[in-house]
Amino acid sequence: MNGTKKEIKMGREAILQSIKKNKPEALPMPIIDESAFYEDIDLLNAFKSNIALVGGTIKEIDVAQIDNELKTIYPKANHIVSATSKSTLGTIPFSKETDPHLFKDIDLAIVEGEIGVSENGAVWVSNTNSLVRALPFITNDLVIILNKSKICIHMLHAYDLIKDRDRDFGVFISGPSKTADIEQCLVVGAHGAMSLTVLLI
Amino acid sequence: MIICSVYYIILQLFKNKQERTGHLRINNRVISYLACKKAINNNKRMKVGLFIPCYINQLYPQVGIATLELLEKLGVDVYYPKNQTCCGQPLGNSGYEEDSKGACRLFVENFKSYDYIVGPSGSCIYHVKKHFDILEQTQDVINVRNNAYELCEFIVKILGRTDLGASFPHKVGLHKSCHGLRGLKLGSCSEVMGDHYSTEEDLLNNVKGLELMSLNRKDECCGFGGTFSVFEEAISTKMGKDRINDHIDSNVEVITGADHSCLMHLEGLINRNKQPLKVMHIAEILNSQTQV
Amino acid sequence: MNHAKKAEIFNKDEAKVNWHDKALWYVREKRDNSAHKVQGWEYLRELGSAIKANVLSNLDEYLIQFETNAQKNGIKVHWASNAEEHNNIINSILEKHNAKKVVKSKSMLTEECHLNPFLEKKGIEVIDTDLGERIVQLAKEPPSHIVLPAIHKKKEEVDVLFQEHLGTKPSQGNPEYLVSEARKHLRNKFLNADVAITGVNFAPADTGGVVVCTNEGNADMGVHLAKVHIACMGIEKIIPKEKHLGVFLRLLARSATGQPITTYSSHFNKPDEGKEMHIVIVDNGRTEQLGREDFRASLHCIRCGACMNTCPIYRRSGGHSYDYAIPGPIGSILSPGKDLKKHSSLPFASTLCGSCSNVCPVKINIHEQLYKWRQVIVKEQKQPIVKKSVLKIAGVVLSKPKLYGFAGKSARFVLKHAPRFMIYNKLNAWGKARDLPEVKNENFDEWYKKRNKNG
């Protein structure tokens, strides 16, 4: 074990030495002029159309109507995990200690998203929202509830908004999982969620 | 640019001949003897030096003639330095940049005293501008690199002309050579975001009777690529075939372009496959007076 | 076998070449459309390039900063000078956990290090979980593209492969059916994996976390279900700040597939409670490349594959013709730095059209580097004698006007008067599919001389 450790250290020193020897003179960090990306667009509409573009569905809805709406969209869902107080449809009690393997057969997961990005329809979901990291991926269908005041224009702005978070795990989700690995044919539903619905409140 | 393919063949033929007969010897003694006389054109009245690339000089004199006539028609004093050979591109692109220095220096010697150097071949001009960095950057070298212009660019940018009074009543497909397009930036590229522009289109759109046909792939490489055409023969000819089919599918009658090396490659395929297309350098079209 | 030879074989099936070309051109068009929608796209590329240049010039400091921050968050950081060290580090982690089943999401680095065969020899099951990678893994082939690993496979071939390995029913290559079967097959692998290995797309130094981008969700399925996560990254994956993801994530997916962003952009900053997270930082020739001034910028690469999709040669020769983990234009400037002799044909597998440099989201001057590698190769590698002597002689001829005049005249004479069999034979690659130009009676020089006499 000691031998391995020593070797690893050598790797580190060797790499850093080699970089010092080979790197060019210091080059400045560019200053990002965000005004170059400015567009006078309707954030909400752009967000909606981009969600559709990436294969998701989106609906504006009153908080009180969430449960009814979800019952209509997912009438057959039995095994439901709700990580939000905004829905009472959860059928499987869980906590952040729950073994994610137990979620292998769930039909529906309901989580809250923190921010939406209009340029690409992505929604930021952290483990504060999902409690169990695997939840938004392992579920068959995924619902993300998002406050429509939390939509920003592009990714630079998005990172500004999440910069003070507790860095644990977080993910931008843009649409349902998909693949085009067979002859470039787009198939929705790969390893992650088969569908994504964003409910804007 | 062709030199690497045609010269390759030609010199191989020489080589074979030499082996058989012992007649042709290209040895250092002969070379130094021939190099004794170095003619440099220093005439101060000269304004534009006409650069006729080696392969055009040897194989497509009509392109050189059209270029010269066109420039003269446009009221330019054109001079043709007689000792010109090649810009060195075929060597550089093959990795033999070091061996091209002699050709590059000769180019500078030939053209250093002109205000502008104009040639009907985008890739050669690009080579002069881009790759003459291998020479010591004397004022002459810098001047030559700065003042070298591809023909269309010279006409549009320097002379400020787009309507040259030409007429050519045919359906024309424009092949945008990569070195002209992406190297000299004669036009906007389909993969770069920004406004559309094209030096060659500006000129062709002003030719009476000419109908510029829209292609499916507007600026894909034809697959010539100098020695690439020989050493990657399969891909090179496939690329050329695909370009030609795009033109045929777009009802083109005449393929044109500002770089005859691409056109030579396409013409070679067209002739072999007996396809219903004609190939002409853009200078020939711009110099054309066909009645509408 | 060099690129030209392999490409020639690939071109024996012209219909397949057409299909391959069209599939990738379609991706290139999607990329164009997607980029057109972004205000300030070209500026975004400039930023991407400038940030990466800054990274390379401070790489040692950023790596130390990254390591410190990662360790603060409970991540174990390892350093590997080469592929062997990388593979050994991973093996030692697996041994420690007595791990026998590994799921892996896409990582070109592990491909470069030949990790799979290394672990398989030790009796470990390594499953590639990206669908394309799983397809080529089942076919026992390397990926032919870095983003679309199975782009060379027709759906009917996938169908047969799945019947054989996953016991699927014949479906005439129905993509929906095949994907759903792959989902079932791989879900089982995810649920039973001991360790998940992922690549890394970006590693911000200021947070010490890693970002992994997938469309399928395979990286997350693997990581969140296994007890141990090992993320493998080349040293050049570092970016200075997390906020710079705001630049790179805007560029990456649009350049790669034309999507505005990948479905999942996952930020792993801390191991989950009760689990372990390891990061292996790998050199494997990168610091050497860093020292090559002309080729340094190749380390900007964010592995989007746009240069492959736009490359007219790649599209018509297929990724396997390059015989390197990373094919296409970017592979052709990276591989000579690894093994100049083995990969010496790759910088010549280009017409230097420059489209690769134009699509590159971090503005690597790929075609200029191809040109420069050619000069290096001619200097340092033994060249075919015929090519060499022809070009050397041409160099002399072109510098001597009189000799040139003579050679030109003779050449035209030969072309005009030699019998056809002398010109069109197997020595003449030009003439295999193309005619040579018709030779005129006089060249331009002669015409000009005559005109001046007459005038």
Automatic annotation (TrEMBL), chain C:
Q: Identify the InterPro entries for this entry.
A: 4Fe4S_Fe-S-bd (IPR017896), 4Fe4S_Fe_S_CS (IPR017900), FTHF_cligase-like_sf (IPR024185), Helical_ferredxn (IPR009051), LUD_dom (IPR003741), LutB/LldF (IPR004452), LutB_C (IPR024569), NagB/RpiA_transferase-like (IPR037171)
The UniProt keyword set, sorted, is: 4Fe-4S, Electron transport, Iron, Iron-sulfur, Metal-binding, Repeat, Transport
4Fe-4S ferredoxin-type domain span? 291-312
Q: What is this protein called?
A: Iron-sulfur cluster-binding protein
